[in-house]
Automatic annotation (TrEMBL):
This is Pyrimidine/purine nucleoside phosphorylase. It catalyses: inosine + phosphate = alpha-D-ribose 1-phosphate + hypoxanthine; xanthosine + phosphate = alpha-D-ribose 1-phosphate + xanthine; guanosine + phosphate = alpha-D-ribose 1-phosphate + guanine; a purine D-ribonucleoside + phosphate = a purine nucleobase + alpha-D-ribose 1-phosphate. The lineage of its organism: Bacteria, Pseudomonadati, Pseudomonadota, Gammaproteobacteria, Alteromonadales. It holds the Pfam family Ppnp. One of its GO terms (molecular function) is pyrimidine-nucleoside phosphorylase activity. It comes from Thalassotalea marina.
Amino acid sequence: MTTFENVSVEKQANVYFDGKVTSRTINFADGSHKTLGIMQIGLYQFSTHKAELMEILSGQVEVKINGENQWHLFQAGECFNIPANSGFEIHAIALTDYCCTFID
């Protein structure tokens, strides 16, 4: 899917790590939401409340989920899951465009 129809977009950006990671929240009629964002090259750590599906739209990242020892490489067209009440380290190797889906 390359477009979302019948959604509302929150105007205020989500800004992390001094602006190196930003996103906008997209709200759907069924109550679900996603964020669309950009991640500059760098190493970042995030925690999760809900489970998440991260889709890499462009760029390349290495990811290590909390509790794992191994890094995994993901690039444009690939995705990965993060469990609820967890977290992950993400190393953006290139400027990365992403979509994060929050799973209830």
